[in-house]
Amino acid sequence: MHAPAGEVAPYAYDGVVEELGPGRCRLVLGAWSWVGLAAALARFDADVDVVGPPELADAFARLSARFARTAAGTPQEP
Description:
By secondary structure, this protein is of the alpha+beta class. The protein contains three helices and two strands; from the N terminus they run αββαα. It has helices at 5-8, 34-42, 54-72, and strands at 16-21, 24-28. A two-stranded antiparallel ribbon has the order 1-2. Helix 2 (34-42) crosses helix 3. The N and C termini lie far apart (33 Å). The model has no long low-confidence stretch (mean pLDDT 92).
């Protein structure tokens, strides 16, 4: 994540935070789904680099498309 470990750690709950350098850290979390994990990472309002797996990157793409439709006022598919 592009955020200092000290800002992420208090909100990581059961996650593991590792400082990587100034303004960067690694956050390891678990979740009930890949989309749930992507949403949990998005709550930090920081840029995220997905190290893996590809399913997590796909989940970010799904959320991105969903939020773009919402921002544009486009009705969601049922």
